[in-house]
Amino acid sequence: MKINKFVFKRHEIKYRLTPEQYAIVLREIDKYLYVDEYGETTIQSLYYDTDTWLLIRNSIEKPAYKEKIRARSYGLATPETKVFLELKKKLNKIVYKRRIKIKEKELAPLIRMGVGGDKGQIEREIVYFCRFYKNLKPAMLLLYDRTAHIDKNSDLRVTFDRNIRYRTERLSLCSGLDGKLILPEGEVMMEIKTAGAYPMWLVKLLNDNGIYKTSFSKYGTAYKMEILGISENDNHKNTATEVKAV
Questions:
Q1: How far apart are CA 117 and CA 102, in angstroms?
Q2: In the chain, what is the straight-line distance between the N-terminal and C-terminal CA atoms, in Å?
Q3: How many CA atoms lie less than 13 Å away from 60 in the CB half-sphere?
């Protein structure tokens, strides 16, 4: 699978869909968007953190600026599989992602010892990040089944994540695709990703079906469930405001 974009800057707005809303949205967007060439893919995201969960604790406090580091594979990896190591930063609601592609077996030396940094600017940034926070280690594995829909005439991308699950053991991209479910069965997280405005058909679709943006972090939700004992239903609050074109 070739997914070769290494720098991103865009808005990423999330929506939590009931099974009924999901069916309506899928039916409507098929008129405007196309499923990308990869179809449904199981994505693994391995998040690194400190012993005190510093990165995710800072993130869930919702500061103006926050950052995370994760390794990502599309499907089950082997030690020889090329995977992405990604810095994800958010500033004033804009998401910035910078990533490199390395073999899975090269992840641990880079994260633990800062080995690397000679292959370009992005790798040097990642090495600096690892050295700055020190003692980063695998903390949480997030998995989900994703389908992405794209607009061939713009940067609009709509993704649907089903069966969102996590593990706090066997923290490797090579160790299986199982995990504990985060959302009730049938619920789906939709993300709308674009650097520009929503098209009017999409604004109307969301408003007509009572679909409102929500604050949702897969890693943050799993942390609250596993470490703090807070269920997602207790934590979930929708932002009940209509979507408007900008």
A1: 12
A2: 35
A3: 16
Do residues 142 and 44 make contact, with C-beta atoms less than 8 angstroms apart?
yes
Q: How far apart are CA 70 and CA 46, in angstroms?
A: 5
The Cα 200–Cα 206 span in angstroms is: 10
CA–CA distance, 75 with 42 (Å, rounded to integer):
5
Q: What pLDDT, on a 0 to 100 scale, did the predictor assign at position 239? A: 34
Domain locations in the chain?
Answer: 7-235
Nearest partner of 192 among 167, 214, 220, judged by Cα: 214
Residue among 18, 26, 23 nearest 187 (CA) = 18
| Topology of the domain covering 7-235 | mRNA Triphosphatase Cet1; Chain A (3.20.100)
- Report how far residue 191's alpha carbon sits from residue 115's, in angstroms, rounded to the nearest whole number: 34
pLDDT tens string 84-140: 999 999 888 888 999 999 999 999 999 987 766 566 889 989 999 998 998 899 999
- C-beta neighbour count of 209 within 10 angstroms: 15
Taking alpha carbons only, the member of 87, 91, 75, 96 closest to residue 129 is: 87
- Asked whether 26 and 52 are in contact (CB, 8 A), the reply is no
Contact 189, 164 (CB under 8 A): yes
**Got the DSSP string for 64-88?**
SEEEEEEEEEES---TTSEEEEEEE
Length of the chain: 246
